[in-house]
């Protein structure tokens, strides 16, 4: 029995090779996986042309996934550094990589990243349209937009961010509800400019069926972008953001009718007390589709530390139903991240994702922590270092401050509570 997309296969009761990967990696039954994929609660982004992709599930009942953004800009075009970021992301167990390049020979870089990576790959085709055509956004034609989408599909991109919900109606909400930071989504601002200068509807909304045909042919997962996401706390959960979300829910149902998988992208800057509300709104308005969040960043005042502000928001979001975290690095809002920034961002996002999986009661999640607890009780330093999320950093800290008694650390030395209580518990039996 043949199928075109992972969603169609699930609806036909077919277990694909990518589904087999998910079943091996996760604590989910075959029946549950098929049911949730058939109803859009789980996606497996896997373009037919990405030959070495490892099937990775995103959605309900699965481990919270993390994404790494990378790519070159005109001011910082160092391809070898970006290739190193890809390798580091894979070594640090990132689940997805997005190429957000906006300069240079983007097709060559994109194809190389895809060939290097068994992780799922995402892009934002409108960036490439602007970068490669080298003309004002207002002069790009509808056909040129879609030609770019097709090129990315042919190259093997597994999921694409498309800001199809930023419609003329949503723009009216923006005009009637002024914001402090206007439109902070790069893709959203480009489409807004095109719509205003051409006095036309968003081409990805107007010709959405055309987009779905491409996605269905190559089995691309649509990551419906939040072009009107808030860029500061003052703009959070406002009318433009929610208006766009309503459209994204409608577009989700239309995609499912064509067996096209969908994720919904979520807000950037959200006060901590509104994070859960935003997750609940997305899940309700978008019919349980997997939720992919940037952060969210829960305070605006920490440039240089936004991997921390986003990890706080990401942990809370994922604990309450978000499925996919886009990492944020210490360089956010300041510059293109370097390799050290990428590592810090990945580790922070993985901590947030793991903490959320424990809170959700995901089968097996807390066992890692129980193993660490046992190693700490036993003062088994080698086992503690092996279990560490970042063993290299943990070992360097240990090695740079050696205690006289190597069973303890230099924080407490002879007053080590664990060592003393172990001895006492042995005496009292």
Characterize the structure shown.
By secondary structure, this protein is an alpha/beta fold. It has helices at residues 6-11, 17-25, 30-38, 79-91, 106-116, 125-133, 142-155, 168-176, 186-198, 203-206, 208-218, 239-257, 275-285, 306-319, 339-359, 367-377, 381-387, 391-399, 417-428, and strands at 42-43, 58-59, 65-70, 96-99, 120-123, 159-162, 221-224, 262-266, 291-294, 324-326. The protein folds into 2 domains: 47-359, TIM Barrel; 367-428, no CATH class. It contains 19 helices and 10 strands. Strand 9, helix 14 (306-319) and strand 10 form a beta-alpha-beta unit. The longest helix has 21 residues, at 339-359. The mean pLDDT is 96.
């Amino acid at each position: 029995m043949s199928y075109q997309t992972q969603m169609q296969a699930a609806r036909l009761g077919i277990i694909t090779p990518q589904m087999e990967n998910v079943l091996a990696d996760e604590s989910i039954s075959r029946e549950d996986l098929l049911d949730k994929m058939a109803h859009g609660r789980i996606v497996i982004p896997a373009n037919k042309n990405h030959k070495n992709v490892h099937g990775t599930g995103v959605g309900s009942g699965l481990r919270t996934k993390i994404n790494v953004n990378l790519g070159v800009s005109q001011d910082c075009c160092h391809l070898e550094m970006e290739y190193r970021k890809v390798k580091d992301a894979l070594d640090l167990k990132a689940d997805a990589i997005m190429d957000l390049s906006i300069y240079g020979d983007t097709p060559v870089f994109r194809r190389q990243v895809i060939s290097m990576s068994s992780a799922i790959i995402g892009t934002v085709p409108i960036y490439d349209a602007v970068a490669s055509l080298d003309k004002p956004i207002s002069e790009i034609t509808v056909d040129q937009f879609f030609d770019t989408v097709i090129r990315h599909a042919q190259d093997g991109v597994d999921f694409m961010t498309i800001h199809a919900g930023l419609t003329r109606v949503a723009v009216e909400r923006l005009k009637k509800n002024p914001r402090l930071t206007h439109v902070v989504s790069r893709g959203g601002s480009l489409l807004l400019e095109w719509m205003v200068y051409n006095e036309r509807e968003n081409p990805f909304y107007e010709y959405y069926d055309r987009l779905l045909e491409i996605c269905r042919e190559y089995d691309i997962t649509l990551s419906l972008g939040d072009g009107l996401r808030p860029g500061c706390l003052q703009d959070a959960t406002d009318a433009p953001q929610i208006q766009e979300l309503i459209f994204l829910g409608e577009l989700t149902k239309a995609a499912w009718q064509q067996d096209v998988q969908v994720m919904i992208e979520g807000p950037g800057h959200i006060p901590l007390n509104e994070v859960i509300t935003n997750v609940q709104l997305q899940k309700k308005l978008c019919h349980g589709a997997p939720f992919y969040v940037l952060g969210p960043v829960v305070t605006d005042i920490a440039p240089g530390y936004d991997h921390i502000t986003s990890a706080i928001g990401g942990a809370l979001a994922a604990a309450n139903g978000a499925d996919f975290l886009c990492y944020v690095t210490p360089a956010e809002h300041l510059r293109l991240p370097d390799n050290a920034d990428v590592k810090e961002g990945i580790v922070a996002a993985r901590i947030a994702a793991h903490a959320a999986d424990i809170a959700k009661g995901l089968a097996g999640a807390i066992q890692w922590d129980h193993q660490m607890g046992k190693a700490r009780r036993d003062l088994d330093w080698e086992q503690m270092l092996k279990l560490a999320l970042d063993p290299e950093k943990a070992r360097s800290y240990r090695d740079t401050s050696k205690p006289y008694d190597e069973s303890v650390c230099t924080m407490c030395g002879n007053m080590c509570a664990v060592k003393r209580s172990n001895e006492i518990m042995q005496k009292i039996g």
